[in-house]
Design brief:
Layout (H helix, E strand, L loop, with lengths): L8 H21 L2 H8 L3 H7 L3 H19 L9 H18 L1 H8 L10 H27 L8 H21 L10 H10 L8
Helix pairs in contact: 1-2, 1-4, 1-6, 4-7, 5-7, 6-8, 7-8
């Protein structure tokens, strides 16, 4: 995976523009010409760094993933696993809100009525497996600390990522003005306490 420190200034410039154009137009409608124009470089310059539009999209996915992973980092001094989980979810939502349309394509490309390239589909799965492993490790710590029931951490990780991904898609399709960050308390409530109404004593 690429880190910003490994990118040249020109590559970074192109990728910053590419993530915006792909988010606005989807993979098939986006053109290298427009990305080059918005980045203020010649089309040939884009191809110096990226062999094809497929490769540019693939590298954009990796770029966005690395940005996201950096954004959800929780300071090491925060040791409590539940607090780390809450902070991680909030920061994840903040990043998704900022890049909601692009993640709509990445998470569920049917939202944009396009299919993303096979290599990018494969890379998408690799990316989310890596993210899933981080979440699973955190779920294990929450279980050990008694915050969560002793449920398979894989299913717990799938539950929280599934809830969030559906909220992203529903926000795009049904409530485009709904901020994901405003849904943070609801997401926590559903995941930690469920949707069942409390019985009156």
């Amino acid at each position: 995976m690429m880190g910003k420190e490994k990118l040249s200034e020109r590559e970074l410039q192109i990728l910053e523009v590419a993530k915006v154009v792909f988010a606005e137009q989807g993979f098939h409608k986006a053109t290298v010409d427009e990305i080059a124009s918005r980045a203020g470089v010649a089309k040939g310059t884009v191809y110096l760094y990226f062999k094809s539009k497929d490769e540019l999209f693939l590298k954009t996915l990796e770029f966005v993933f690395n940005e996201m992973m950096e954004s959800v980092q929780v300071p090491e001094e925060i040791q409590d696993p539940l607090e780390r989980l809450k902070i991680g979810i909030r920061r994840y939502l903040e990043y998704l809100e900022e890049h909601k349309r692009l993640f709509g394509i990445i998470l569920h490309d049917r939202v944009s009525s396009v299919r993303i390239p096979a290599r990018s589909q494969e890379r998408k799965l690799e990316i989310y497996k890596a993210l899933e492993q981080r979440i699973i490790a955190l779920m294990k710590k929450c279980i050990e600390a008694g915050y969560l029931k002793p449920i398979n951490p894989l299913w717990l990780a799938s539950a929280i990522t599934g809830i969030i991904s559906r909220f992203v898609v529903n926000s795009l399709v049904f409530s485009p003005n709904q901020k994901l960050t405003d849904l943070y308390p609801l997401i926590l409530e559903i995941f930690l306490n469920g949707a069942k109404a409390k019985q009156n004593s």
